[in-house]
Amino acid sequence: MLAFIIRRILVGFAMIVVMIFVVFALFFANGNPAINQCGKYCTPEKLDEITGLLGYDKSIPEQFTAFSAGLVVGRDFPVNDEYRAALIENGYENRIIHCAAPCLGYSQSDQKTVNQLLVKAAGPTLSLAIVSFLIWIFFGVLIGVIAAINKGRWLDRVVVGSTLVVYALPVFVIGTFFLQYVAIKWQLYPYPRFEPLKEPADILPWLTGILLPALTLALFFMAAYVRYTRAFVLESMSEDYIRTARSKGLPERTVLFKHGLRSALTPLVTLAGLDFASLLAGAIITESVFNYQGMGALAVKANNNHDLPVLIGLVIVGAAAVIVMNIIVDILYAYIDPRVRVTK
Amino acid sequence: MKKRPIARLGAIALAGVVITSLAACGASTDGTSGGSGNAGGTVTYLGVAGQWEGTDPATVYYGNEIAAFRRLVYRGLTALPITDDPNPVPVADLATDTGTSDDGGLTWTFTIKDDVKWEDGSPITGEDFVYGLSRSFDETLVNGTGVGVTYLSSYAPSVVEAGYTGPFTSTDAAKAVFDEHFFADGQTVTYKFDNPWGDFPSAAAGLFTTDPYQASFDDGSTLWEINSNGPYMMEEDEFDAAQGATFVRNPEYDAATDSTDLRQALPDQFNFELVADSDVLFQRLVADAGTDKEAFSDANIPATFYSQVESGDIADRTLKSTSPYTRFLFINSLTVTDPDVRRALAVALNKDGMIQAYGGDNYGEPSTSIVSKAVSGFEENPAFADDNSAGDPEAAKELLGGATPEITVAYAISPTNEKLIPVIQQSFEAAGFIVTPLGIAPDAVPGYYGQMAAKDKNGQKVDVFLGGWAADWPAMSTVVVPILRSNPADAESGVGFNYGFYSNPEVDDLIEQGLAATDPAEGAKLFAQADAVAGADGAYIPVVQQNNYFLYGSNIDGFLPDVASSFYPDFGSIFIKSSK
């Protein structure tokens, strides 16, 4: 098992390294990125100045080397050596920003390191991802099982029909409904604002602020998981070993929960892991509707500002989250299903 | 069409505007202000996330941002008073008076008040003012807006030409040139310009370019920090451009060093809350529930909300006033050289149709100048005063004499502009022009104005293009000069906002006379003459004089969009109504 885990981690690490290279090459393939920071009143002289200041006058291999070195040992900004020397000569060393390893770059438009921006955005994104995940997994699996054991009855039909409707509704429609009608117009729930969770006393305001956006996100996934669970449970309940369990005289509850559900959960773990990982890169629509400043909102802002360092950082972190969650899912999967464990 | 950042300024026709009472109830209960409304409580400012570009005074340029910070946290040499007077004059703020100049505006001297402090308790010194000004020369700080550098290049060109780029990176030689021009002796600050700056005290009130800055605060991470010297201070370490900030009382602020004409500072706290978009913002203001009763915004009511806000009690919470913004069409003088053709374009344009496309009467009214009615000394431009605002294709045809010129009309692609372009096209085509629209995508690089600023228009044929402007401080010079003064002969990019590359020696001469005038009224007359000459020459086509149309919560009082705040709500006068 240990060798399996180590092998998965090594493969994951290699994938991250390759992905960093590809992302960097992709973003810098399209001409001089300095033009994106040159403002509305860009002149050729100003563009030259900014190009040099941001280090984009160097070759792409040189820039990649500097970027990679930053990931390992950190970097100083501005990257232009002459500019930093002038700052030191004029007694403004404190204007040199040191970005500690693993340094993902510097946002000129925000005048902050990408790491700082990502750390700030992580709070809302993690909160949203965790709370919505708990809601959709709990209710998705529960309702899915109820639908499965009531297969063909009116309850099953209502559940299947309503999940189809919810699944078809775009997230922004649900979010806008919650925000503009439930919170603002009808005043049925407090206006949702993100409150950071720093101490136990913050739990209630944090939860109050997160509930509507989390529910918005969870409803979409929940509808899907109801249908997945229903299908997986029905499939596993038609297996031969279930018939065997019943023929042994086991109570139906034991058959369902001990034998049927465990088997149905196996593929759900894979799905849930990947869906959760995708949320760690930010729920762009939900965060935008509720003005939650997580990874998704940061991506929108960086895209609008053509802020390449932030976009690169976001892609790397998002992809790394998926790779890491994949590894975790693989390990969990191996735990749940011994057949998956590869031993030598 | 994108709005040109800005907006200071202007006189205004506040006729018909309901200005809520500033003379209410009792005086301050805690000694923190001497205002005449109710002291205490928390007022919420609602804005849209992502629209603020920085809180470092060197970066702040938008009119609404200057309006807020001037009253709350950033005091300057001078400031404009809270008043519905359309022609206010600057008064002393951190300085003891509005400055003295014995040589017609070349040299200005100010004395800084004793007992004025930063939020850390340190005294504000003359050196802080010199240091603040020096930062305005650094284009890496000003985030591309560069309004400070723009004006300083005009009035102190020798400093810029010496290569002075601010305190961080300038050479010793460049610093020496700066030091010759701007220096402090104790609490006395001297500004020596190369060219006379007659209305420098107004500029100091309207921009943050000359504001003080504490050198010890300058640590390279200051874009979103605020070092207050005003009645409030930011509670958080940084302003969050996506969510806002909280402004609480600044214990180091001494109201005795200030005037209630400038800051009544009545609420105990201002919460800046930024929301996802203007729909959410106005739904909250319409709902008027909970703490939103004590909320207001400087955003204009979107057309989609007109039907909701124009009836019932909500209408009592709206306020319409003239905006310092005007919209107009630039004419590229390098490609449209015949004055008759330029005049024909102006005569043909259906401004009424354009205003309907913008949103109707609430948006604005047909204009006759690039200068807003909200600007001190505004005069209708006689060249356009008699034009039919619905367009006159027959008169335009007569001017064209049977010719059918081909013109390209450029615009930034947006939902509003997509409605405007058909109106413009139909107007011109009815007069005989052959029109080709040219839309510039929102994500184009360089952006729309970047492309229009270029002399060659980024390699495209552009004859007419959409634009808009507002004054930087209440003077006609800040409109007429940037748009109508000739660009330098070797300029590849428009200087100021003369993107049409208009050039007329007669206009230039009047502008120079206006800039040299030490009497603001005399200067305004000369600029109005320059505008009239340029108008008769077909330099541009005026389109619309914009309105402001605001909505605020039911417990808000002292809501006054005035000249000092560029006709955004004045933070200095707002307070919460007394409990009923």
Q: Your description of this structure?
A:
The complex is a heterodimer of chains A (344) and B (580). Chain A is mainly alpha-helical. Chain A has two domains: 2-116, no CATH class; 118-336, MetI-like fold, CATH 1.10.3720.10. In chain A, 71% of the residues lie in helices and 3% in strands. Chain A is built from 13 helices and four strands. Chain A has helices spanning 2-28, 44-53, 60-73, 81-89, 114-149, 154-168, 171-185, 203-237, 240-247, 252-280, 284-290, 295-304, 308-336; strands at 75-77, 97-99, 106-107, 112-113. In chain A, strands 1-2 form a two-stranded antiparallel ribbon. A two-stranded antiparallel sheet of chain A has the order 3-4. In chain A, helix 7 (171-185) packs parallel to helix 11 (284-290). Chain A is elongated, with a radius of gyration of 25 Å. Chain B is an alpha+beta fold and 580 residues long. Chain B is 27% helix and 17% strand. Chain B contains 17 helices and 18 strands. Chain B has helices at 63-72, 126-135, 147-155, 157-161, 172-181, 200-206, 278-287, 306-309, 339-348, 351-358, 382-385, 393-400, 415-430, 448-453, 477-484, 505-516, 520-536, and strands spanning 42-48, 78-79, 91-92, 107-111, 182-185, 188-192, 232-234, 244-249, 269-275, 295-297, 318-331, 364-366, 406-412, 434-440, 464-469, 540-551, 556-557, 575-576. In chain B, the strands form five sheets. In chain B, strands 12-16-11-15-13-14 form a six-stranded mixed beta sheet. A five-stranded mixed beta sheet of chain B has the order 7-8-9-1-10. The longest helix of chain B has 17 residues, at 520-536. Chain B is globular and about 75 Å long. Residues 1-35 of chain B have low confidence and may be disordered. At the A-B interface, helix 2, helix 4, helix 7, helix 11 and helix 12 of A face helix 7 and helix 14 of B.
